[in-house]
Amino acid sequence: MSVDASNSVAFQEQPITQLLVKVAARCNIDCSYCYWFRDAAVYDKPKLMSAEVLQQLLLRLEQHVARYSLVDFPVILHGGEPLLWGVDNFHRFAEACEGVTSRTGCEIPIAVTTNGVLIDDQWLDCFEARNISVAISIDGPAHIHDAHRKTFQGTGTHAAVERAARMLVSRDIGVIALAVCNPAYTPQEYADFFAACGIANYDIMIPDATVDEKPSSIAPFYNGLFDLWLEANRTTPTSNVRIISDMVAALIGNNAPTEGVGHKPVELCTVMTDGTVEAHDVLRIAGDGFTNTRFNIFDHAIDDVRNEPRWKAARDASVNLCEKCRQCKFMNACGGGYLPHRFSRKNGFDNPSVYCDDLYSMFENMQSVLERHLYVRKQDGERIGVRSAAAGG
Ligand code: SF4
Ligand code: SF4
After folding, report:
1. What residue stretches are annotated with the Radical SAM core domain (predicted)?
2. Closest-lying ligand to the alpha carbon of 219?
3. pLDDT digits (tens, 9 = 90+) for 126-159
């Protein structure tokens, strides 16, 4: 991607603010759409993070938060399937992070993203005791989930994952369900399932695809999901659908917390099981070894990754948008779409999202609905619709 001065957008440099840690490089199930195993380079990594790498990681982590006087440094434990690392290692890691907090004053919230199959009472005790929040991957009801998320023997995993999800919500554990959208089904099917499980906090993520692919249209699904979200929260907040609340936040000019929505730099740092440091994990969608760097936590501080060409290229690509996106009225809210969805073999990241038409239609739909619902309060207390306010009413 060519980035000239006029094309370049200035975002303030800041230290790495969160860490994705791959504690296991293998998985115990076999999802058909998994981006992780699209990259054969992951098989070169150790299956699990060793005690030696963990110790070095903790050292670098403490150096990092102390050097930049961070008050908050979230860590996401990831895989493959991170629970393969074992419950004792989770306790060890969380306890060590508590030590870092007591010495530096920096909070280190720990989250884990899991397929849930291994969750049992011992894991629940660990999550609860260590205040580890859990994102569980479950694609709504069984007929949707089991189409893609299977065991290595080809059977569905839904029953095991639903059981785990219900166990999680029965305890004092922060839980979010992560589903991947299958636009062949309705958002109502997902919403009904999550409501039946007692899960009020969930995301339905856009399926991963690059510009070289031709994924199905997703706008009708997300427009329907937006209607459901609006209805569920009309009087009091009852359900948080992350992608919808993020898109609404971005549309009204706020910073969306997740990286797939809004125009902002992608600055994630991924530590692999062997201590190597990589660019954005999901960029491995672009193929073998795409995220590899020469950096590792034994020779480098965490923030050194900012000088790594591949990491910088991904970071720059996340903020320097293609011509079409720069002209788009939703540029700030959309940000060109999720970075991996902008990749093509021909142009790198210099493309609008493969879902551009859908995203445009989703934002347009949201905007027109919100304009009917939002109001501003005049100095005399009168409430007027934003449309009238914009027209000078
Ligand atoms: S659970 Fe996650 S890592 Fe494992 S196969 Fe499925 S998508 Fe891949
Ligand atoms: S809607 Fe399309 S053109 Fe507009 S910012 Fe998003 S990807 Fe770019």
Report:
1. 13-239
2. 2
3. 999 999 999 999 999 999 999 999 999 999 999 9
User: Percent of the chain, pLDDT > 90?
Assistant: 70
| Cα of 359 from ligand 2 centre, angstroms | 7
Give the domains, in start order, of the chain with CATH numbers: 19-321 (3.20.20.70), 325-390 (no CATH)
Q: Which amino acid would we find at residue 292? A: N
Residue 28 Cα: closest atom of ligand 1: 4
Amino acid at 284: R
For strands 375-377 and 383-385, give the pairing: antiparallel
Pocket residue to mutate for ligand 1, from 77, 78, 115, most atoms within 8 A of Cβ = 115
Spacing, Cα 26 to ligand 1 middle (Å): 9
Find the mean pLDDT for residues 42-67.
Answer: 96
pLDDT for the residue 289: 55
- At 7 the pLDDT is 45
Phi and psi of 237, rounded to 5°?
-65, 120
- Ligand 2 atom 2, closest CA: 356
Sorting pLDDT into bands at 50, 70 and 90, what band is 388?
Answer: low
Of 198-202, 204-208, 290-294, give the lowest mean pLDDT range: 290-294
DSSP symbol at 44: G
- Pocket lining for ligand 1, CB < 6 angstroms: 27, 29-31, 34, 36, 79-81, 115, 137
Give the chain's radius of gyration (CA, Å): 21
Mean pLDDT for the stretch of residues 278-299? 70
CA 47, 51, 56, 62 torsion-angle sign: positive
Are the C-beta atoms of 314 and 278 separated by less than 8 Å?
no
* φ, ψ of residue 268 in degrees (nearest 5): -75, 145
In whole angstroms, give the CA distance from residue 375 to residue 378. 10
Measured in Å, residue 136 CA sits from the centre of ligand 1 at: 11
The first and second tokens of residue 109, run together, are 């919230």
pTM summary value: 0.91
pLDDT for the residue numbered 138: 98
385 to 29, 110, 253, 375: CA distances (angstroms) = 50, 41, 17, 4
Give the burial class of 178: count Cβ atoms within 10 A of its Cβ; 0-12 exposed, 13-18 middle, 19 or more buried. middle
Q: How far apart are CA 175 and CA 127, in angstroms?
A: 10
